[in-house]
Amino acid sequence: MAIVLGPNQYGKAENRVVRITRDSTRHEIRDLNVSTALRGDFSAAHLVGDQSQVLPTDTQKQTAYSYAKEKGVSSIEAYGLELARHFVDDVVPVEGARIEIEEYAWEHAVVDGEEHEHTFVRLGQEVRTASITVEGKGAEQKTWVIGGLKDLVILKSTGSEFHGFLKDEYTLLEPTTDRVMATALVAQWRFAETGATWAEIDWNDVYTGVKRILITKFATIQSLALQQTLYEMGKAVLEEYPFIAEIKFSAPNKHHFLYNLETFGVENNNEVFHADDRPYGLIQATVMRDDAPDAGPAWTPAANLA
Ligand SMILES: O=c1[nH]c(=O)c2[nH]c(=O)[nH]c2[nH]1
């Protein structure tokens, strides 16, 4: 028996990078949470404490901040690609890099009926996400890009049913043809260079488009289950964007239970609910093309560690 070093990576997690664009009196803001992770042969650092192949996590942090100015943040996907490629291309021992980014949205504050040029109000809505993985040097290099969102809290007050389900001796749930459906949606979509190269993809445009499709489908489908709604949302995204190979959802079913007001002689016609926070149904699904190119390490945040 021998004890050996298994998979490993290292980096700086959660760099809170705020980039203000101030080319005119009207400023813009991009508010990011950036995590870097480098992969390669770092066995000497682990086995004998030799740092000669280790680019410090502090340097990774400094690079993330400097690149926010040097390369700009036109989108989190483009900025993440710049960072990942830099670490792999320019740092000799680095064979792979994983960059994970969250973006918090702000909008210009409205003051006296007009958008203020340098005051912003944080939008309480969803967080935009991206995960970029680059592996290999030179012509062998491979790139995976995932765009996404999380915490998109969305609710419909009708247009949702759930009935016809399996029953056994523990089943209490009553079937319904009219219920509240609500979730805090997590969606992640994997780009593939089919029909478009990375340089041709307008990351911001795709983000806005995917979000619009998700919300539209959630609203307009007469839902028979959250599972069906997720599938239809994913199908619509893949139909719209040929360069998205697959989309993954994780959706807590945020139950709204009709509150019993009978004791008070008060009629409750789907008007008063108890919003339960836990437990919640957790519905998770992937919608994909049957010929989707290999996902490789795209979904693996931590070099086979997770
Ligand atoms: O949309 C739903 N899917 C389920 O699988 C499920 N199970 C449940 O109790 N309620 C619901 N709702």
UniProtKB/TrEMBL annotation:
Residue ranges of coiled coil: none
Record keywords, A-Z: Oxidoreductase, Purine metabolism
Pathway where it operates: Purine metabolism; urate degradation; (S)-allantoin from urate: step 1/3
Binding, urate: 57-58, 162, 179, 227, 253
GO MF annotation: an example: urate oxidase activity
Residues annotated to bind 5-hydroxyisourate: 57, 162, 179, 227, 253
Record-given protein name: Uricase
Organism: Agreia pratensis
